[in-house]
Amino acid sequence: MSTLALKRYERPLAYDGILAGIIAGVVVDAFLFATGVLSWPNSYNFIASGLVGKAALGSSAYVPLGIAIHFAISAGWGALFGLTAQRYRQVLAHPFISGLTFGLVVMVVMQLLLLATGMWRAPQSAGQVMLDIVAHTVFFGVPIAWYVNRAARRSRALSGP
Which of 58, 65, 103, 146 makes an SS bond possible with 137, Cβ 3.0 to 4.6 Å? Predict the structure, then answer.
């Protein structure tokens, strides 16, 4: 009989993943706003419309809801990465590769969710696809992986061998 043993940390890495996801949400938004992919406040209206419908597209009153949804989703992805990293140690061994891979997974899953809800928009160009890939990998997945990796190393140093 085998048992599943997780590496013991001072606290679950999912907590660090939540903070990492929020940080990565800020980083990816900054990148997307700087490149002109996102526009204020339309991007957050679009996100809010996933919950409340088309009414959110025409009213700036839904911007706070869109921001909250965006960061809740980012935090959820970060928590998932933290749980994965705690279970599979090799994820922490290569944070850059893990972050790139995780970012691609996030991008594909989010596009599939948009497709399933009828909110998907076809990319306008190959350049837009490349920007989306860079945004999700370099500016979302990598910051999450880097932060969770640092938190795990700090936790191991505090808890000893």
Answer: 103
pLDDT of residue 8: 53
pTM of the model: 0.88
Residue 39 pLDDT > 90: no
Q: Would you say the C-alpha torsion 27, 85, 137, 73 has a positive or negative sign?
A: negative
Interatomic CA distance for residues 87 and 161, integer angstroms: 18
Structural domain including 23 reads 13-155
Q: What is the pLDDT of residue 10?
A: 61
Q: How many domains does the chain have?
A: 1
CB of 78 within 8 A of CB of 22?
yes
What is the end-to-end Cα distance of the chain in Å, rounded?
26
